[in-house]
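Thread title: Can someone regenerate the structure for this chain?

I was given the following input by a collaborator and told the matching structure tokens would be attached. They weren't. Posting the sequence so someone can regenerate them.
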Amino acid sequence: MDLDEELNEETVAAINEKYPGSAKAYRCNVAFSQEISDLKTAIVKDYGRVDIIIHNAGLIAGSPITEFDDIYVHSVIAVNLTSHFLVNNLLFYTYSTPEML
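Best answer:
Regenerated them for you:
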């Protein structure tokens, strides 16, 4: 899952080369809860449930902090922090039981 659909397809092709039919590409911007919800719907349709979540999304700066504008700061916070809560809430907690928490 990534915003970059071309990179998604390359990754899926590499996985499926070794494990045929085991991977599928999804596009999602984890900064937006609706996109995460849509992702959950697609995964459940394709696989029935979510078994594991690996948080790997992140934005890094290529310039000094003094050059950041408000939009960039909010984007970094949305992807690097808020998205972890959104993903856990919308994906993981959907399938967990009290014993798992």
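Helices lie at 5-18, 33-47, 70-95.
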